[in-house]
TrEMBL record:
It holds the Pfam family Hormone_recep. The keyword Ribosomal protein does not apply. PANTHER family: NUCLEAR HORMONE RECEPTOR FAMILY-RELATED (PTHR46800:SF2), NUCLEAR HORMONE RECEPTOR FAMILY-RELATED-RELATED (PTHR46800). Residues 11-189 form the NR LBD domain. This is NR LBD domain-containing protein. Keywords: Receptor, Transcription, Transcription regulation. SMART domains: HOLI. InterPro entries: Nhr-150 (IPR042936), NHR-like_dom_sf (IPR035500), Nucl_hrmn_rcpt_lig-bd (IPR000536).
Amino acid sequence: MNEYNLFMVTSWTKIDTELIWNMTDKMFPATRKLKISDRKALLRNFILKFWQIWPIFDCIKNTEDYESMKKNNYEKMIVGWYGGCFKEGKEMSNNEIIRVFEPFWSTFYSQIVPPIIGLKLENEELMAIVWLLFFDNAYTNISPECEEICRNIKKVILRELKNYQIDKNFEEMRLLDTVETLELIEKSEQKFLEEMMICEMHHVRIHDDFKAILKENRC
């Protein structure tokens, strides 16, 4: 059985956003100029991407454990993630949970994770990916001033990423390969939104703070 389940982790949304912003404020002083509304928008835009990032990082850190995981342990992990989250009287059997939700896990672990692990990115490159995702300036819910700050910070991140890879004597294509992981993570985010819709259809409880973020990202 999992140590944590879906409802429990979604209940940490407020804490997660506070921790993420504290790190952002420390690493990127320019963000201190942003209006509160822009700060909140950036965090809401990023949190679903964060949900894709941390399991990817866990897979990178524990690749052998995931690759050698037996089927019954894999299924226990899935059941444990949703188990205990159902509204009273709406519980699903273990077999039903596997039937409904395993395809989402399969897509993530077979299509999203392997290409990223295959790049063998270093920690500095992985952190660059995180911040490039955070400072996405393509959203419509941020002000023009915020767009400009995000655009400028992304330029700095890309420049430093390129310089890092040059210093490491990596091949020129590595920069493009690294940046292309953003598309994979965004693809994973869209699949995750589908999964959350299925959760709601099957009466899986999700914390209200997280529900609000899901609703905004569906608009």
